[in-house]
């Protein structure tokens, strides 16, 4: 194994997701604005917002403790670790042996939990309300995330993500199976809920009482808010990237050549941008469901994931 | 056409009871400080046929007290609380003798509407505690929202008592925008009162200025030309359309379906530009003047038709969307009985099955368009309020085309100036503004200056219905419900 290429791939994943996440968010907003007949603020607006926020003085509410202060950094850090682990550009990196499915889902949950604790720490009604709603959603989403990827791990015989992805590259028939299709549907819904998109949450609303994710982070300002936003944008990019790696894995570098890595980078950007555009376009046609309908939706996606696992078990058992 | 009865504290409740039993509604209560002492005017209306009855009562200057009518009419109880806060007139045995307008930092014993009140003193010592009702029990918690909100809306504080996500009780504390409008009217000339009336609630420029002008015209005995009345009726409908279109869009936005909002706001912008062509002002200010109306241009029927088609397409798309439909249906139901007891007006009442409309009960010009019908829905939920608006837009577009037909433009249509001091010196204007019935009562001095103007926005009647409709609704549906009522803070708190 050429460690230089491997390390470059890991660094590349973190840098591309870190720098590209705000651009992806800007891109999705722009697609949505154009589809709605608006001019839009431009693809770079999230970066401009971040620059504005970073120039402000840090303010923390009186009475908040370490949970509030640590959460933004913890969110970004845990997301960055997951970004380094999962196979976005290459399946053959120095850390790919640790990229276990359960670890990845646990790290994603850690970021969610940190924000929920921070929301509770503010002691405001909104923080608590948002945290309670976020935990309700998370408790339904995390099992779906686990199960849907688990369905793919059965044919691969391992819960190691790079192994699952490289297996799929070499044997595409696994993805076209009923189990693969069920799993992609379940994972897509879970990603929507985890990243707080319509129909579960509305990221662009100003109505405090309807918020889930935004309600938890209402008290953040300045650089802390910039971190929280970056964390949320990175998670969106990460999950869309993971979705594309698991179900459209072609182009991901499985070897150790520089050329393959460069190609993987370009294809990753194209795949995520395309997926983001599809999601933004879909959001134009959707509306936010009633809060009490969210569990029904997520239970449905959990059921799909369960079916995927069952199908995967029986189909691979007979073959 | 207005009957006036003098009453005493003994005969007032009896007479009021009789009027309410005959099907009148209490439209307005206005206190006055005459040289001989305080006087209170109760205006009761019913129609058709257009009936207006006033009960007057003179009070002892040393002990300004009135018998309460709160047990007869819910609205009366609120008018009395407002009157006590602003004039110091005490409603005896009021069942809910709490403050309404006065916030706790208002100086003790200072009543701004008294002639000797002077300029407002500095905020003083709190006049005792001003608590919210606390709901106790397992898992009950409070969510305080406002008075400053995240969106561009007016200030109001909402206190939710909640279990899980279900609202047990909502208390709305308003009155953060007391501007002293009634006081500002006093001593102005009739012409100087008009800009103030247009600004009582910014989105109801025509409704409030028309109610003011009708009242002034009655007080001075002005005979407004029939064509001017038709022009006014047209402007009133134009105001209804642009507000309803904006509301339909924002209701879609509140359920996260923002493309329809973008389209609705596009249509609204067309309407605002049309308004500027017609009156020179996007919100139709300057169109209605005392004694007449002034038009710069007339709306093109083809443009109106195109707008109607666009709006119908937007509402069809909204109602055809299963998630939007699901969010609107059954949310925050206001029962007909509750709406009736509270005395709701406008589209809020019509969405709860009450077919009241001032255009039919108290028309200032014949509404003789054959297709004019008052749309009524019986659901009482957000969907019903959405549908009533959509149907009203259609009806209003037809009325605009009908009234515009044959009007001369550009032209100011004015009544001949009456002799100074002519007329009965008091007048009442009743107008179906876009939110509902606006009642304005005017009294004039001998030199034609305004001695007292009391405007009542329909929001004053409708605000108490919001918490009633919200009982057992979930917290995330509050913004949607609030938008479906879309009540005015500025018009409520003069």
TrEMBL record, chain A:
<feature type="transmembrane region" description="Helical">
    <location>
        <begin position="101"/>
        <end position="123"/>
    </location>
</feature>
<dbReference type="InterPro" id="IPR052561">
    <property type="entry name" value="ComplexI_Subunit1"/>
</dbReference>
<dbReference type="InterPro" id="IPR001694">
    <property type="entry name" value="NADH_UbQ_OxRdtase_su1/FPO"/>
</dbReference>
<feature type="transmembrane region" description="Helical">
    <location>
        <begin position="175"/>
        <end position="193"/>
    </location>
</feature>
<dbReference type="Pfam" id="PF00146">
    <property type="entry name" value="NADHdh"/>
</dbReference>
<feature type="transmembrane region" description="Helical">
    <location>
        <begin position="258"/>
        <end position="285"/>
    </location>
</feature>
<keyword id="KW-0560">Oxidoreductase</keyword>
<dbReference type="GO" id="GO:0016491">
    <property type="term" value="F:oxidoreductase activity"/>
</dbReference>
<feature type="transmembrane region" description="Helical">
    <location>
        <begin position="297"/>
        <end position="315"/>
    </location>
</feature>
<feature type="transmembrane region" description="Helical">
    <location>
        <begin position="236"/>
        <end position="252"/>
    </location>
</feature>
<protein>
    <submittedName>
        <fullName>NADH-quinone oxidoreductase subunit H</fullName>
        <ecNumber>1.6.5.11</ecNumber>
    </submittedName>
</protein>
<feature type="transmembrane region" description="Helical">
    <location>
        <begin position="6"/>
        <end position="28"/>
    </location>
</feature>
<keyword id="KW-0472">Membrane</keyword>
<feature type="transmembrane region" description="Helical">
    <location>
        <begin position="70"/>
        <end position="89"/>
    </location>
</feature>
<keyword id="KW-0812">Transmembrane</keyword>
<keyword id="KW-1133">Transmembrane helix</keyword>
UniProtKB/TrEMBL annotation, chain B:
<dbReference type="InterPro" id="IPR029014">
    <property type="entry name" value="NiFe-Hase_large"/>
</dbReference>
<dbReference type="Pfam" id="PF00374">
    <property type="entry name" value="NiFeSe_Hases"/>
</dbReference>
<keyword id="KW-0813">Transport</keyword>
<keyword id="KW-0520">NAD</keyword>
<dbReference type="Pfam" id="PF00329">
    <property type="entry name" value="Complex1_30kDa"/>
</dbReference>
<keyword id="KW-0560">Oxidoreductase</keyword>
<dbReference type="GO" id="GO:0016491">
    <property type="term" value="F:oxidoreductase activity"/>
</dbReference>
<dbReference type="InterPro" id="IPR052197">
    <property type="entry name" value="ComplexI_49kDa-like"/>
</dbReference>
<dbReference type="InterPro" id="IPR020396">
    <property type="entry name" value="NADH_UbQ_OxRdtase_CS"/>
</dbReference>
<dbReference type="InterPro" id="IPR001135">
    <property type="entry name" value="NADH_Q_OxRdtase_suD"/>
</dbReference>
<dbReference type="InterPro" id="IPR037232">
    <property type="entry name" value="NADH_quin_OxRdtase_su_C/D-like"/>
</dbReference>
<protein>
    <submittedName>
        <fullName>NADH-quinone oxidoreductase subunit C</fullName>
        <ecNumber>1.6.5.11</ecNumber>
    </submittedName>
</protein>
<dbReference type="InterPro" id="IPR001268">
    <property type="entry name" value="NADH_UbQ_OxRdtase_30kDa_su"/>
</dbReference>
<dbReference type="InterPro" id="IPR001501">
    <property type="entry name" value="Ni-dep_hyd_lsu"/>
</dbReference>
<feature type="domain" description="NADH:ubiquinone oxidoreductase 30kDa subunit">
    <location>
        <begin position="9"/>
        <end position="114"/>
    </location>
</feature>
<feature type="domain" description="NADH-quinone oxidoreductase subunit D">
    <location>
        <begin position="254"/>
        <end position="409"/>
    </location>
</feature>
<dbReference type="Pfam" id="PF00346">
    <property type="entry name" value="Complex1_49kDa"/>
</dbReference>
